[in-house]
Amino acid sequence: MVDSERSDLDPVAPLTDLGAFRENGYALVDWIADYLATLGPRPVCEPVKPGDVRAQLPGTAPERPEPFSEVLTDLDDVIVPALAHWQHPGWFAYFPAMSSPASALGEFAAAGLGVQGMLWSSSPAVTELENHVLDWLVDLMGLPESWRTTSKGGGLLTSGASSSTLIAMINAREMCRSLTGAPVEQMVAYVSSQAHSSVEKGARLAGLRHVRLLDVDDDFALEPEALIEAVSQDLNRGLSPATVVSALGTTGTTAVDPVRGVGEIATQRGMWHHVDAAYAGSAMICEEFRHHLDGIELVDSYTFNPHKWFATNIDCSVLWVADRGPLIDVMSIDPPYLRNDASDSGQVIDYRNWDISLARPFRALKLWFVIRSLGAEGLRANIRRHTQWASEFSERIDSHPRLRRIAPTPFALVSFEHTAGTAATCALASAINDTGRFFVTVSEIDGHQYIRVSIGSTWTTRHHIDSLWQFIDESAMTVEQPKE
Ligand code: PLP
Questions:
Q1: Which of 94, 157, 158, 162 to mutate to test the pocket of ligand 1 (most atoms within 8 A of CB)?
Q2: Which secondary-structure segment (H or E) carries 245?
Q3: pLDDT of 9 over the 60 cut
Q4: CB within 8 A of 207, min separation 6: which ones?
Q5: What is the number of other CB atoms lying within 10 angstroms of the CB of residue 145?
Q6: Fold exhibited by the domain 107-370
Q7: Residue-level pLDDT at 480
């Protein structure tokens, strides 16, 4: 019986038609594999004008069930031609949103199971797998053992670093309130001028009106002296320093703030110290990057995004706290309809008391699929190939007569400009993107624009890096240079 005949009999029949699910599911897996296998020849960013997509969609939702084959056809004809293909091998923009087949299958399995983990008892494996995988990561990434849920700290999965940082800022506010009794209007958050905007947003959402953007050094890392100076000025004004955030890999140039230097000041002043390692945190799986963790024992909370550079599709961010006690105090609320014996026993973790949302997806499943399918070895090799290519790319920039790096390359982001100035830099970036084969982004520091080549797509190979370089090498010599 075909879909349309079934739905003639009973309009809710498609909800429970497992025969159709099997058939359509196999077709969808084939569709995804074909999409990924044929990404290369597509333009990285499809040419789309505002309203193009909606103009192809019917004005009203379908009254009758539609065959899945027609949905797939529209996926091909309407949706895919209007995407920026983040998984394209020529994707060098922003930071990667690195996905993988294992992760997609984990996401699919989680959707199929359709469970949610607001409480341990609402689906025990959802909570325990999350505890367990994040404890694995503590070990794999050389983080303090006390952060494991089997010890004093613990980790949870959130929708992104913005949410993770917001939770950290709420904790910072409450710690400051209990230490100083200061009203929130007097509390201050400190971040470097290069911190991601989510840090300022998180502090403001937590109610902190004063956010100080501190000076950075020549490598764009926060200067502890600037922090000391700002804290002392605020104390003189009668304000209460509440929190400082160190960036381990800024968005602009992947600069690394001195975690130990900042941590010592935070400890001395009773400030909550949060580390934003949203992008570069993934690299900590390789021992050679762990010098950036110096001082990590002085940190109160730490976030990194597997959905950037850890082969795990969006959304998936980790937040660890060094001490889960204050977090649970701040985030707990106990309505009678959520009470149960397991929670009352005190033997289980109820993530609703760690997180903002009550209903929680089974994010740990895709992370578990990824870690098991690649192994720590595969995850390390992935980071190492990208950082190796970035290092080679940097050397090519350094030896080019018309190009100049504007910052070091500690991970897999190369930041550079054209020596002829901003107009030439922007013209070069446009030329790169106009090929349709590559996509880079331009950013700005102190009014100065530069190109970011961020290496980290699952499907990028050395061949794609070489092609990008060949294009840049030639274009940098001939790029049109409008008057500055
Ligand atoms: N922090 C840093 C350093 C980032 O680069 C980003 C995003 O690129 C974020 C935070 C925000 O992450 P999310 O989009 O997961 O909220």
A1: 162
A2: strand 240-247
A3: yes
A4: 173, 184, 187
A5: 13
A6: Aspartate Aminotransferase; domain 2 (3.40.640)
A7: 65
| pLDDT cut 70: percent of the chain above it | 97
User: pLDDT tens digits for 171-186?
Assistant: 999 999 999 999 999 9
Task: Assign 158 to helix, strand or coil.
Answer: strand
Which atom of ligand 1 is the closest one to the Cα of 162?
A: 16
* 176, 272 contact by CB (below 8 A): yes
Question: For the chain, which residues make up each domain, given as ranges?
Answer: 4-85, 107-370, 374-478
Contact indicator for 201, 255 with CB cutoff of 8 Å? no
Predicted local distance difference test score (pLDDT) of residue 11? 86
Of ligand 1's listed atoms, the one at least distance from the Cα of 95 is 8
Distance (Å) from CA 122 to ligand 1 centroid = 30
Ligand 1 interacting residues, C-beta cut-off 6 A: 95, 160-162, 196, 198, 247, 249, 251, 276, 278-279, 305, 317
> What class does CATH assign to 4-85?
mainly alpha
What top-level class would CATH report for the domain 374-478?
A: alpha beta
Dump pLDDT digits (tens) for 335-375.
Answer: 999 999 999 999 999 999 999 999 999 999 999 999 999 99
Residue from 201, 192, 127 nearest 161 by CA: 201
pLDDT score recorded for residue 482: 54
Mean pLDDT of the chain: 96
**To test the ligand 1 pocket, which listed residue (198, 245, 292) has its Cβ within 8 A of the most ligand atoms?**
198
Pocket test for ligand 1, best of 196, 200, 256 (most atoms within 8 A of CB): 196
Ligand 1 geometric centre to CA of 195 (Å): 10
